[in-house]
Amino acid sequence: MIEVVKPGFYSTIQDLGRIAYHDYGVPYSGAMDEQSAKIANALLGNNENNAVLEITMTGPTLKFIKTTAICITGADLSPKLNGNAVSLNKRYTIKPDDILSFGKLNYGFRAYLGVCGGFQTEKVMGSRSMYKNVTEQFITQKGELLPIKDLNTNAATSNASIKIDKTHFNTKSLPVYKGPEFDNLSKTQQKQLLNKTFTVSKDNNRMAYQLEDAIENNLKPIITSLVQPGTVQLPPSGKLIVLMSDGQTAGGYPRVLQLSDSARYSLAQKKTGDTFTFNMSE
Amino acid sequence: MSGYKLTYKRFGERSILIEWPPEINENVLYDVLNYKESIVKSSIKSIIEVKSAYNSILINYINAIDNINDAFLILKALYKPSKSSKQKEAVLWRIPVCYDTKFAIDLEDLALSKKCSIDDIIQWHSNDIYTIYFIGFLPGFYYLGGLDKKLHHPRRSSPRLQIKKGAVGIGGNQTGVYPNVSPGGWNIIGNSPIHFFDVNLQEPCFAKQGDKIKFESVSLKEYNDIKTLVEAGVYHIKQEPIND
């Protein structure tokens, strides 16, 4: 068990999400920055789909009840073990009563805490990813006990670590594909879309990132059709909406772009006020 | 039947979108479902998910699609236009709805603006049979077609922050049921005591695309009785096969 002493701003359990339930209107969910979540699991020798704790902007304080191994990846939120700074992307062995806390946000927006064998919280429709009306809980709460596996004492004890390419966090250029309605835009609108620098608005969460900086829009709504994480919608206001992991499954706004997976993981590391451009990869 | 003129588009690195002409009708729906079924049945190993909406199918692949034109060709070979004007094994579901003013917070206003009685609205809404085009947006939200023109009504100018689970509403030319508590801008005319989305079931939604729904007006007393049975897990929604 791990006790949640303080939950932080928004901490949820996530794995790689629910596949094949979109047809029931259930979002995929899953880690917003799948790449960082996978690195945490890889360094622990876990399965890539093991559940991790997704930590947003402000970290939690966690007290370990039993021996395990952990690895923190993604954003740098100045993690500390019993008050001493620890490195990211490195495996650490943990003893009972150890306390993990976080401090200042240095880069990125979402950190991932992996534990040996993955978090063992409730599994619904093949996934432990927390989502309202699907899992009992949709956010971790103060005082909660998060179940984990016993540390396999045969597991390698080497404290593996790797170096991470920071481009993933600070890139200003997100690779995109044309969305289904891209060709309905005028040449001027297409240019705007691909040349303008966009800013992440304060309306950004696991469902969607809304962008500031409106672009001209005279497109008609479409018959409600399918969308997916990474779909960039152009609503009547002209302020683009990028759907993320918990995004809805269908929508009626024109879909002008589609982010590549890696672009979506990079966007998940951006916060209010961060800027970027879209870079057409076709 | 020669079939519809379909368009095939790449939709990101791992997906393809197939689109029908921009129409909402049952012929398009059955053609979509028929094609969807043949893609699923083809068991192409690289495909992990096939889903559909009113006039589109989205296919997700495990990995980035290397040769998009090859992928289009493989899919095109699977398109056999639907000859049927109905869905195989479709079911009609009779869904209890209580139109009591306890739930129907917008029913009076709706009747006023339609210059008709509350009973007229209840009768129009519960007389027709609606087609389930697809489930989406929220878990267990059914996109229904077939709302009587007389009942078309704009969404409220500002959405309510909290609509009750089971609320039956009208928004524009659509009617539907809120599967869970959520914000929403539709005009609320009733409430259904049954679960539209149940995570505990193998199939979390009782109905499927192409099925039909008929709302049946029940009294507040009947509503409460049904709710008790639903909570106890022993209520069976009335259903019948569609043969016509």
TrEMBL record, chain A:
Protein's organism: Winogradskyella immobilis
InterPro entries the record matches: CT_A_B, Cyclophilin-like_dom_sf, PxpC
The protein, known as: Biotin-dependent carboxyltransferase family protein
PANTHER family from the UniProt entry: 5-OXOPROLINASE SUBUNIT C
Domain Carboxyltransferase as annotated: residue spans: 23-282
Glycoprotein recorded as keyword: no
Keywords: ATP-binding, Hydrolase, Nucleotide-binding
Lineage: Bacteria, Pseudomonadati, Bacteroidota, Flavobacteriia, Flavobacteriales
Automatic annotation (TrEMBL), chain B:
Every Carboxyltransferase domain range: 6-207
SMART domains per the UniProt record, alphabetical: AHS1
GO molecular function: 5-oxoprolinase (ATP-hydrolyzing) activity
Pfam family, one: CT_C_D
Transmembrane segments: none
Keywords, ordered alphabetically: ATP-binding, Hydrolase, Nucleotide-binding
SUPFAM superfamilies referenced in this protein's UniProt entry, alphabetically: Cyclophilin-like, PH0987 N-terminal domain-like
EC number: 3.5.2.9
PANTHER family: 5-OXOPROLINASE SUBUNIT B
Protein name, as recorded: 5-oxoprolinase subunit PxpB
Lineage of producing organism: Bacteria, Pseudomonadati, Bacteroidota, Flavobacteriia, Flavobacteriales
